[in-house]
Design goal:
The chain has 13 helices and 70 strands.
Length: about 1100
């Protein structure tokens, strides 16, 4: 532990003196027009430095993130993006420093790109709705729109809707270069060659023509203009990403200007005098063409430690709870730290205080030790916290608590579980080997070897000791590619015994009734959905003792009669048939195990199937408590298996939760949505357990821990144990050195995405999801606008069905012009987004008029959230696609779009295929821009289903909805570069089985199983692709193998944005030929 703590201390200490050393991890450099200055982002603020290097001058000094600087052409003004209001907005400030003015107010990500030639306008990219004439899949975040705004603020005008990134205009302002974005992928992924990689384009504002300038199959990005028709860009065309030069007249003539290896060139900028700036290997360079790049040394005198250590009050956010044997205290984890609170509210004690992650808690049988797992140094290890003073009975009030290792090695060991007698600990080694450690002599036994458990989330394996400390229960498939069953393990390492043999997955098996019954969750009788959808389950019980089983089946009256007879006449030997043992605490009693006819001694304990979460039985087996979702929220339910009584014990209205029960069975303990509470099992009364403590958060040390966690985790969890040939040690060391130069999660997210991007795999990279109190949130009106309209007000080009204005009697229609919002007139100086911030769900007065009739209207509506408007836009788009298909095919062909590979989309698809399109002769299945999930097998079954028998009710011959021979209806599949994950898998299987033609653009091979792992800082996550896929009987995996369509059609920007979907039209043409 000391070794890693030293590393964290070193990294934190470096920030005290790093400002005097040359800076690393400088981001987003921008050269001034005369090439004399470079503006850049470092540690969340903007600076400028001479292009010769030296001391940097601060331009912004605040706790927000300020970045993406852009110079005006006269060098007097800087535009930049800042998250001061919870999202990135465009600001401008004097290039010499001074007060910044906000230009954009929409709660989308606005990033400045360029100034107009006269410096009166700022061009920026933003996440906005498509132009109203577009028939492209609606995705504001995927296809960035180009806007302009006056340096004085006011109305924002759309320039282009194609989906443009890194836009740079020529000197005359008549053309611009941009890089495209075709689909979902980590932008820092390296070396992949597929259709989804970025390309360089030219757009002519006068002719409205688009021209693709790059032809390499991999990444081409970040274009900037040179002299005249020349342009520069970054490309991986010769291996690692370097700087290249070309021209728009003959873009195939390419000259390589830098020749770096291993680490890419990034952040390209060029001055009007020809100086080029870029970053490489985390350092800043300038280049005069024909010369060697020159490294720029930057020095900076500033204190960056102000926000690195925060004292926080802790009142919620608890998870991973554990109950002490006495039931008087509860341990839990908040933000990777362990706390213990009194269940009566008497106090809270913080047990750990580190920047790394602790969890997986359990009290020792005597309650004086708390077992936990901690990831530090080179691995996960198992520690215990102990109350030192013998006269102090509880952790929450203890004055001295010691922490000592219990199981510690270079391997990962976690999820330690004390045996009931306290003499042994069961634990996982390297996530999938279950072992037992004897605490008296230190000997270790493997009870379930490698190949029988597969962990995808640390701490996701449940195993339970028998009351006599001789056995363990776990759910496992025992190495088969099948569902999990209940497996009984012997603590001495004897051969495992499979207790169930079910074709339905079983989970979380546990003991009750002194070890005479095992209960578990199974989906055997519940409604089954797609692999990613909700599933209904039941709780079952298996009796290991025939006499206990017979007694359990007695009715309440029969049991009462039996007990009375037993008391009156002890000579009545009913026990020959039904044995009774009232002692339910059998720690010292050996459990009698009878494995014969277990299927005959299995009972369903729940009365009806439900979406069941956690569950616990009373020690006597008379009551079953479980968390269930019968509607949209989780509540606590109680069932009596003997009497079949079932009731909602406590209404929780929770999103999720976990459940524990006290040893005496009188109290339940709940964790729901980060809150702790206890429930009286008789009344259902709920008492919240108070959490009141503090946390000292060391952000820099925590980021260092997260980095080390990723470094250790990838080699153990990545789908390819060889990491696709990547030198992981080199890159781990390379990126580690930049940690002291980062003080915010935006830059840290880039760092970990760069690191994970070295793996050249889909489903990698880091995500950052900041949460800001009272952040701007722009409401939506459910209208389509002419975003290029420059007259007064907002010109309406469409009313979205289901939106706020879709009301009987509303005067809003296409062509209407909105004049006022809440009484404020919309002039050229007014940004409507500013008036709609925080207006969702609030009555809002809209004044508008009809330019044709001059009629005026005044209507009060309630604006909606942007995501609600996005759903309306998607529905509008699918309706349009259905209409086009129907009209162009003469009603012969049906259409369905599958937006995601999940339960909801399967139901939508089935409803349309078997409903509205049942009588169509053929079907177009559109999966373009489907982001994945897990549904390909169900969809393949749906589109290959054959009919063998036709029913004839009362002699009538019904008109079949499938071909007369019973074969599947003809289909074709529309795909795009935006198909991802399981949307690739579906297309791959569809084509390989020759179900129909695949039409559209090639699809990158992204078929891996991923878990997006939240980090100790829950605003961060990383992608961990852990499962690769291969065709049955083959060994090669599908990842990185592109799918080529049978009919390749690329949608032209101009056609697509003006109402013509060439891919859909090609699919209709193809299907019409197939059904002739």
């Amino acid at each position: 532990m000391k070794k890693l703590l030293f590393l964290f201390t070193l990294l934190w200490g470096q920030s005290l003196f790093a400002q005097q050393a040359p800076l690393l991890w400088v981001q987003q450099p921008a050269l001034s027009p005369d090439g004399q200055w470079i503006a850049f982002e470092f540690k969340g603020n903007l600076y400028k430095v001479s292009s010769a290097g030296g001391n940097a001058l601060p331009l912004t000094i605040n706790g927000d993130y300020n970045g993406y600087p852009v110079w005006s052409h006269d060098g007097k003004t800087l535009a930049f993006a800042s998250d001061r209001f919870g999202n990135f907005d465009v600001f401008i400030m004097p290039a010499s420093g001074g007060e910044a003015r906000r230009l954009t107010f929409n709660s989308a990500k606005d990033i400045p790109y360029d100034f107009s030639p006269d410096n009166s306008q700022v061009y920026y990219g933003t996440e906005a709705n498509d132009i109203y004439t577009s028939v492209r899949f609606p995705s504001p975040s995927l296809f960035t729109k180009l806007f302009r705004v006056s340096i004085n603020g006011g109305r924002n005008i759309m320039i282009n809707s194609a989906g443009t990134e890194y836009v740079h205009f020529n000197k005359e302002g008549t053309k611009f270069l941009f890089q495209d974005r075709k689909g979902y992928e980590n932008p820092y992924r390296k070396h992949h060659q597929s259709a989804v990689t970025r390309d360089i384009w030219l757009f002519d504002l006068q002719t409205k023509a688009y021209r693709k300038l790059s032809d390499y199959a991999g990444e081409d990005r970040e274009p900037v203009w040179g002299k005249g028709n020349e342009f520069y860009y970054l490309s991986e065309r010769n291996g690692d990403q370097n700087l290249y030069k070309s021209n728009i007249v003959n873009p195939s003539a390419v000259t390589q200007l830098t020749f770096y290896e291993k680490n890419p060139v990034r952040n390209l900028s060029r001055s009007e005098t020809g100086t080029i700036a870029f970053t490489q290997g985390g350092e800043l360079y300038i280049l005069q063409e024909g010369q060697t790049p020159k490294k720029i040394n930057i020095e900076l005198s500033a204190d960056f430690n102000g926000n690195e250590v925060k004292n926080l009050t802790v009142t919620g956010g608890a998870g991973q709870m554990a109950i002490s044997p006495s039931g008087k205290e509860i341990a839990y984890v908040i933000h990777g730290e362990i706390y213990v609170s009194s269940t009566s509210g008497a106090g809270t004690k913080r047990i750990t205080n580190t920047p790394y992650q602790e969890g997986m808690l359990q009290f020792s049988p005597d309650g004086r030790n708390l077992l936990y797992s901690v990831e530090h140094e080179q691995s996960w290890d198992i520690y215990k916290a102990s109350i030192v003073k013998k006269n102090e009975p509880y952790f929450f009030s203890a004055t001295i608590i010691s922490q000592t290792p219990v199981i510690e090695s270079a391997k990962d060991e976690f999820e330690g579980r004390y045996s009931p007698d306290g003499k042994k600990i069961a634990y996982l080694e390297e996530r999938n080997i279950l072992k037992v450690r004897n605490l008296d002599n230190g000997s270790t036994v493997t009870v379930l070897p490698e190949g029988n458990l597969f962990s995808f989330v640390d701490g996701d394996q449940d195993f339970y000791w028998s009351p006599d400390s001789k056995h363990l229960l776990i759910a496992s498939s025992l190495g088969l590619e099948s569902s999990d069953d209940v497996v009984l393990l012997s603590a001495d390492g004897s051969k495992p015994v499979q207790l169930t043999h079910s074709g339905f997955n079983i989970s979380n098996p546990q003991w009750t009734m002194g070890g005479q019954m095992i209960y578990f969750k199974s989906g055997k009788l519940g409604l089954k959905s797609s692999p990613t959808g909700p599933k209904q389950t039941d709780i079952y019980g298996v009796f290991l003792n025939k006499a206990k089983f017979d007694r359990f089946r007695l009715s309440k009256n029969d049991l009462k009669l039996f007990d009375e007879m037993k008391q009156i006449d002890s000579s009545v030997n009913v026990s020959k048939k039904i044995s009774k043992n009232d002692s339910l605490s059998h720690e010292k009693q050996q459990i009698a195990l009878d494995f014969d006819h277990l299927d005959d001694r299995t009972l369903k304990l729940t009365l009806s199937s439900a979406q069941i979460g956690d569950f616990k039985m009373s020690p006597d087996g008379e009551k079953l408590y479980y968390l269930a979702r019968y509607d949209n929220r989780v509540d606590l339910w109680m069932t009596s298996p003997r009497t079949h009584d079932n009731k909602k014990l406590t209404q929780l209205d929770a999103g999720s939760g976990s459940l524990e029960i006290s040893p005496d069975g009188k109290t339940l303990y709940l964790e729901t949505d980060g809150l702790l509470s206890q429930i009286d099992v008789e009344t259902g009364a709920r008492t919240v357990i108070s959490i009141n403590s503090t946390m000292e958060l060391h952000s820099e040390a925590e980021r260092a821990y997260i980095f080390e966690h990723i470094i250790k985790e990838i080699p153990k969890k990545f789908f390819d144990p060889k990491l696709q040939g990547v030198d992981w040690t080199y890159y781990s060391n390379f990126y580690r050195k930049f940690l002291p130069y980062i003080n915010n999660n935006y830059d840290f997210q880039v760092l970990i995405s760069e690191l994970l991007g070295e793996l050249n795999s889909s489903h990698t990279g880091g995500g950052y999801y900041p949460s800001v109190d009272n952040a701007d949130q722009t409401a939506a009106l459910g209208l389509l606008f002419d975003e290029k309209y420059e007259g007064p007000g907002l010109k309406v080009m469409g009313v979205l069905p289901g939106g706020p204005f879709d009301l009987a009697g509303s005067g809003m229609k296409k062509g209407s012009v909105i004049d006022e919002i809440n009484g404020i007139q919309l002039t050229a100086a007014t940004d409507p987004a500013k008036l709609l911030n925080h207006q969702q769900g609030i009555q809002t007065l809209i004044n508008f008029h009809d330019p044709k009739t001059k009629a005026t209207f005044e209507e009060i509506i309630r604006p909606i959230y942007k995501n609600e408007e996005s759903a309306l836009l998607y529905k509008r788009w699918t309706n349009l696609m259905e209409h086009l298909t129907d009209s162009l095919s003469g009603g012969k062909i049906g259409y369905v779009h599958i937006a995601g590979m999940d339960e909801a989309n399967y139901r939508i698809t089935l409803d349309q295929v078997e409903g509205r399109d049942a009588t169509k002769k053929a079907l177009i299945v559109d999966t373009r821009f489907n982001g994945g999930g897990n549904l390909h097998e169900q969809l393949i079954d749906l589109f290959t289903e054959k009919v063998t028998l036709y029913g004839r009710p009362q002699g009538h011959i019904l008109t079949p909805t499938s071909p007369e021979d019973g074969s599947a209806k003809p289909t074709c599949l529309l795909v795009s570069e935006g198909n991802y994950s399981d949307a690739f898998n579906f297309a791959y299987v569809y084509k390989r089985l020759k179900i129909g033609k695949v039409i559209g653009m090639p699809v990158a091979g992204t078929g891996t199983g991923v878990f997006w792992e939240p980090q100790i800082d829950e605003t961060l996550d990383i992608g961990l692709p852990m499962i690769s896929l291969s065709w049955a009987g083959e060994t090669s995996i599908m990842e990185n193998h592109q799918l080529e369509p049978d009919i390749k059609i690329q949608n032209d920007y101009e056609q697509l944005l003006n109402g013509h979907d060439q891919q859909l039209e090609a699919a209709i043409k193809q299907m019409l030929t197939e059904i002739k």
